[in-house]
Amino acid sequence: MRLRNITGSREVIAENEFVIHDPEKRRGQWKSVFGNDRPIRLEIGMGKGRFLMTLAVQHPEINYLGIEKYSSVLLRALQKMEEDPLPNLRFIRMDAEYITDVFAEEEIDRIYLNFSDPWPKDRHAKRRLPSRQFLERYDQILQKDGIIEFKTDNRGLFDFAVEEIAETKWKIDAVTYDLHHDEKMMEGNVMTEYEERFSSQGNPICKYVISR
Ligand code: SAM
């Protein structure tokens, strides 16, 4: 994402009705944010939000939360929501590193990681969203039968993510190194902005689904 500093984006977000402000105050009470008992699913690093908006339309029986670190990126999703508001989708501007301050044990039903930043330097490995450090955080907030779905075209990041599993209590339920030619795993696939871009350049997309 290049647009890191659109002037005034922080101010727009601070007043926006689709953004949950002070999310740590909702810890343990997220069902009341949506006003129902439906499952809550997260995309961490949602970017401009196309993936979640598509899911939210397809599945009104599920609640979705998008987490994004940068205001200027989140602003793009808000502009789309203004045009077509969805009652089962809300956003949080935060660094996912603090996710356990925002969600209580078993509060989340599923986590999506799509085209996460690769952080190529070894010393930054713990910042990668599928790292063992993040998997430990996800373990704290996901329901016992909850799953994590991860997609990327970055083979180095994907190999790292698969290797990290062995260091954790997670296990791989399904994996592909060429999602778009895997009939079974493509069932119901929702394209993200990055997936559209990189698959149209011919890059194979890797995906895993993991559970405990
Ligand atoms: N998921 C989208 C897609 O597939 O089109 C966007 C992918 S983009 C490469 C990664 C996004 O994750 C960026 O918008 C970035 O700001 C966000 N991000 C990276 N690290 C994050 C973190 N620790 N917490 C929240 N968002 C993060």
3D structure, described in words:
The chain is globular, with a radius of gyration of 16 Å. It has 212 residues and is of the alpha/beta class. 33% of the residues lie in helices and 22% in strands. Helix 3 links the parallel strand 1 and strand 2. A seven-stranded mixed beta sheet has the order 3-2-1-4-5-7-6, with helices on both faces. It folds into two domains: 1-94, Vaccinia Virus protein VP39 (Rossmann fold); 105-212, Rossmann fold.
Q: What does this entry show, briefly?
A:
This protein has about 210 residues and is α/β, with parallel strands linked by helices.
List the helices and strands and how they pair.
Elements lengths: L8 H6 L15 H5 L5 E5 L5 H9 L4 E6 L2 H13 L5 E5 L5 H4 L5 E7 L17 H10 E11 L2 H11 L5 E6 L6 H4 L6 H8 L5 E6 L1
Parallel strand pairs: 1-2, 1-4, 2-3, 4-5
Antiparallel strand pairs: 5-7, 6-7
Bound molecules: S-adenosylmethionine (SAM).
Question: How does the helix and strand content classify structurally?
Answer: alpha/beta
The number of distinct helices, counting runs of at least 4 residues, comes to 9
Oligomeric state, counting identical vs distinct chains:
single chain
- Please state the CA-atom Rg, rounded to the nearest Å: 16 Å
CATH homologous superfamily annotation of the largest domain:
Vaccinia Virus protein VP39
Q: What does the average pLDDT come to?
A: 95
What top-tier CATH class of the largest domain fits best? Alpha Beta
- By DSSP, the count of extended strands is 7
What is the helix content? Answer: 25-40%
User: Would you tell me which CATH topology of the largest domain applies?
Assistant: Rossmann fold
Task: State the shape.
Answer: globular
Which cofactor or ligand species appear? S-adenosylmethionine
